[in-house]
Structure formats: C-alpha cells, structure tokens
Specification:
The chain is of the alpha/beta class. It contains 18 helices and 15 strands.
Length: 440
C-alpha cells in the first residue's frame, strides 16, 4: 500500500450512529488504514461503543473543529479524511482518494446522497454536489480529505463554532486549487432536514452562509444554527431502569414481592413506550430515546429497542438531576427541544404529550406535576441549570423547580397534575382505572 489514510471521526452523543459508521470502516482498517474517533464529551455510550471499532479513541474539547484538529495531531497517515459520525463512505473510498492524489490533487471530497424521510433529499444532495463543483468549496457532510502536510501548512481547522469546513476549504482552494470532486457517493443522514423541515433547513443554511460571507460573528451564527425552530418536533426521552426484581418498585415489592413488583414496572414501562411511539407516529414528537440505567446492553432494553424502534443511551451522573440534565443537554445540542418522562405514570398518553409539546413551543420549559410533589414530565427549549439544589424524592421537588426557574428568569408552563404508581394504593387505583376503560 503506497498511501495510508487516517480517518478522523468527531463525535458527540452519537451512540445511535457510531456503530454503523465504524463498522462500515472495518474493511479499511483491515487494509491498514487508521480510524481515530475524537469524543467531545458525550454523555451517552459513544466512546465505549467506538473503542472496539477504532484504532484510537481520544477526548477533546467540544467543538467539531477542535476535535478534528486533535485527531489530526495524532494521525499517522499520509492523508487525513474527516468523517461525520452519521456518514458512511463508499466501498471504493480509499482507491478513489489514492487515484486523485496520484493525479496531483492535494485535497477533495465525495459526492453525497442524503438518507431520510423527506422526498426532497435527493434534490438537496444533487444541489450540494453541484454547488461544491461550481464554488470549489466542500462541506463536512461530504467527507473532506487532504494530504497531511497541506493540512498542516493550512493551519488546520480554524477554531470556529460553525463554518469551520467553509473556512478550511477557502484556505485550501487558495493554496492548492479547487477540490477533487469524487463522484462515488458517501451516504449522509438527512436527520437535520427531517427534524427541522427540508425547505426551512435549506433557507436557514443559505442565510447563515451568506451572513458568514458578509463577515458575521461565527459564534452568533452558531447560536442561530443551534436554536430550535419554533415548530421543531421535540425529542422524547424516556428514563428507565432495568426491571430487576428487588431493584425496581421497592415500595410495591414490600407488599407484592420483588418479582410481582418488577412485573408491574415492566407493564408500566411498556405502556409509556407505546404512548411514546404513538406520539411519534402522530407527529407530536420526533425521535424517541430510551435512557437506560445501568447500561444499554441489558436484555430488556435491547428487546424494547427492537420492539419500539428506539435509540438507546446510558444514563450518566452522580444523581437524578445530573442524569436528567445530561440527557436533556444532549438532546438540545442536536438542535431540537426535549421532553423527558419516567415510566411510572399511566396517565401519560398522546394527548398529554401533545399538550406538553405545544406549551414548550412558547416557553423555555414545561412541567408535568405529580400529585406527590414531584413531576412526571419536564421539558426544555434551551439548556438550563435547573436541577442544582433540588432535594430529590421529597414533596418539595416541583416547588423547588418552580423557584429555580424563577431564579433563572426562564418562562415555563405547567400541565395538569398526574399520579405515579408507587404504592399498593396507587396500583389499586391503576387497576380500577384499567377496568373502567375496558368496560369491565
């Protein structure tokens, strides 16, 4: 082999995509090319999943430019290829890159296809490919590659929060001419277009690029890019424990026995997940994510993933507040508002979730109070330090959270209160309600 690639994958909370990305690179690793994953502080299992599938997994400060520069600094290859975690290279990627470099190119990118629900995505991809040929500018979605010494001479990626790919393309075009545009197609996720609307996303990106060309502050542009559109569907995060007898529904277990209490927990969890996917099918929420305790590989979680088509993430944090904030922050970082629910409340249904989503569209946060002083749902449109100082498992949780929102000067709305199933009396109420609904 005369040319070795270093494939650098910046990642942040990509547990749902990183396995497919890295598994597709296995033939390249087997051929002697190098795969480096640079994690920007994921709160899910991105780094753990990557370790068995990459040559190196390192940590770097959050920010795609900073992460890619960190990967490039340790790379050993002759050429660097920067690959988003939701992108898969074509099978002939290494041969295609070698061919254009032998022919004299110093940098380049691939044509792409976009994978998603919108019927406009083929048009979007064709436009992106044509625009790149016309302007000589490549974007990160197109799997940019560059000879290592040229990358070093260019100074790497500028530490910008957005448009780092445009800035590097401009420099490389001036130094080494336009990019080699390889017609073999990489497959890139269309999730951004699906989540925010195809036409809205196109208009937003053109406005941001125009503003950047006019000299706008990249940080201000990044804030605009990450702000959820008013009509963006929220991500729904379901917090669940592994249903192990003796470790769930402990108050019920004292009366029913651990196996029976665990069965009740499983029943309630599956009721919640059924409501979640029904809300997704109705267009009330977007992605449904199951946040698992203690790990995503437990049989119950794997079974629920397959049954309900869920993305799995592991809860991380010293207490419930830290775990919830980590999950909400990860969702918000993907550019959508987020709703978080547990699995104890049988009253959560499509109508309740629709009401929560509608309230969240006009506020910074939404609360679903519980009769016992806690809450069954919480949602955010922006990242708030909301859980500091909250005394969990007390009757003052909802009151303390309202006070915290006031301190942060955040706007919020409240749903009607619901009740959890925690005690034998709650279970009797639940069974009675089920009997009434079923007409028995």
């Amino acid at each position: 082999m005369t040319m070795r690639l270093s494939i650098i994958v910046p990642a942040l909370d990509e547990a749902g995509a990183i396995v497919a990305c890295l598994d597709a690179l296995a033939p390249l690793r087997a051929a002697g090319h190098e795969v480096i994953v640079v994690d920007g502080g994921s709160v899910d299992d991105t780094a753990a999943l990557a370790r068995a599938r990459a040559d190196r997994v390192i940590a770097a400060p959050q920010g795609r430019a900073l992460q890619m520069n960190a990967g490039a600094a340790i790379a050993q290859g002759d050429a660097l290829l920067f690959l988003h975690a939701d992108t898969r290279l074509p099978a002939d990627a290494a041969d295609a890159i070698a061919a254009v470099l032998v022919a004299g190119a110093r940098w380049g990118r691939f044509d792409i296809v976009l994978e998603g629900r919108s019927r406009l995505l083929p048009v979007v991809a064709a436009t992106m490919n044509a625009r790149s040929r016309w302007t000589g500018i490549a974007t990160g979605d197109q799997a940019m590659f560059v000879v290592r010494d040229v990358f070093v001479q260019a100074g790497g990626f500028r530490p910008l929060p957005l448009m780092e790919d445009i800035a590097l393309s401009t420099t490389l075009k001036r130094m080494a001419g336009p990019p080699a545009c390889i017609r073999s197609r990489a497959v890139t996720s269309g999730r951004r277009w699906d989540a925010h609307g195809t036409l809205r996303t196109i208009v937003t990106m053109w406005r941001l690029r125009y503003a950047y060309w006019r000299g706008a502050d990249p940080q201000a542009l990044a804030n605009r890019y990450r702000r959820p559109p008013a009509r963006a569907l929220p991500r729904l995060l379901v917090f669940a424990k592994e249903p192990v007898p003796g470790q769930v529904k402990t108050r019920l277990a004292a009366a029913l026995g651990p196996p029976a209490a665990a069965a009740v927990y499983t029943e309630l969890a599956e009721r919640t997940l059924a409501a979640a996917v029904a809300a997704r099918a109705a267009g009330v929420v977007g992605t449904v994510e199951l946040w698992c305790d203690p790990a995503i590989d437990r049989p119950a979680f794997v079974a629920w993933r397959e049954r309900y088509d869920l993305a799995l993430h592991a809860q991380r944090g010293a207490d419930l507040g830290a775990r919830m904030h980590g999950a909400l922050a990860a969702a918000l970082a993907q550019g959508a508002p987020a709703l978080l629910v547990g699995t104890d409340c049988p009253g959560i249904d499509v109508a309740y979730l629709a009401q929560a989503a509608a309230m969240l569209a006009g506020n910074d946060a939404v609360l679903g109070p519980a009769d016992d002083g806690g809450y069954v749902l919480i949602g955010m449109r922006r990242d708030l330090d909301l859980f500091t100082g909250i005394a969990w498992s007390t009757a003052t949780v909802i009151a303390d959270t309202r006070a915290r929102l006031a301190t942060l000067r955040a706007t919020f709305a409240e749903l009607p209160p619901l009740w959890d199933v925690d005690t034998s009396a709650d279970l009797a109420r639940y069974r009675e309600t089920q009997a009434i609904i079923s007409g028995r």
